[in-house]
Amino acid sequence: MSPSDREKARRYLKQEPIKNSYQLARMEDEESTLFYREGSEEKGLIIQRDETLTLRGDKEFLLHLIDEMEFESEREYRFHAVDNESYEAVKERFDVSDHRETWMLVRDRNKIGEPTVDVEPLEKKDAEKIDKYWGSSDSDSTDYLRERIEKGPAYGVRKEGELVAWCLTHYLTEQVIMLGMIYVLDEWRRSGFAKSLTEKMCLEGLKDDLIPTVYIYKDNEPSISLAGSLGFERIGEDHWFHGEFKAV
Q: Going along the chain, which residue ranges are E strands?
């Protein structure tokens, strides 16, 4: 794929830079492969890294693009941040499992306040504890958390030296800071920690004029309620799932 095609793909995604922020972030991943065709600016694209894919675009075009790619029959792939029309295309070529629907929400930067409790930057060693509550407790997820802590922003709350709450970023783009992995240990909930961490992370993004965004599973009512109370509003929805390629 030529540099000019990658730039055309970026321009296509930047038509909706917030809704397509996940795809824009993946475009910067040097290990990702872009599937895109000359003259297809208004049609769509597929970005793949190993077994993980994300898509955007017109259903019929994506079906043609999928058919041109070399997927292994009956092999399971992971699909991240797939919009509704792209999801309809994938369902025609893959058997879907572990399907989770999410809302994408953005926050009005004028509603950002100050933390009311002390928060401090996370350390790379914190990844192992966070992984017990967020990840799959394998080396891949722990390594991912270390990477996100190192690249930041990433903050936590400690009590008597123990990490009891945290919030990290999944990615940054030219316009978006995507918050994620926010968690408060059970015994410390309703202490204002989640709110303070969110405020701090949003303030960090504000330094670079970034728009705070979050993905929240549609069935996670407590997080949706918290986000709403902090001024986050829904702007889109995406699908996260596994898919096994159908044998022809």
A: 33-35, 44-49, 52-57, 76-82, 94-107, 120-121, 155-159, 162-172, 176-184, 211-217, 232-245
Query: Does residue 185 sit in helix, strand or coil?
Result: coil
Question: Confidence band (pLDDT; 50, 70, 90) for 39?
Answer: low
Q: Both 15 and 124 in a single domain?
A: no
Instruction: Please tell me the total count of domains within the chain.
Output: 2
Strands 94-107 and 211-217, sheet pairing: antiparallel
Assess contact for 168 and 154: CB atoms under 8 A.
yes
Same domain, 88 and 140: no
Write down how long the chain is.
248
Q: Residue 129 belongs to what domain range?
A: 109-230
| CA distance readout (Å), 101 to 124, 144, 193, 216, 239 | 30, 22, 26, 8, 5
Q: Is there a single domain that holds both residue 22 and residue 57?
A: yes
Angle between helices 59-68 and 84-91 (to 10 degrees): 50
**Model confidence band, residue 75 (pLDDT cutoffs 50, 70, 90):** confident
Of 123, 116, 138, the residue nearest 200 (C-alpha): 116
Coil/strand/helix, residue 54: strand
Other CB atoms closer than 10 Å to residue 86's CB: what's the count? Answer: 24
Q: Specify whether 113 is located in the same domain as 226.
A: yes
Q: What is the pLDDT of residue 41?
A: 60
CATH of the domain at 213: 3.40.630.30
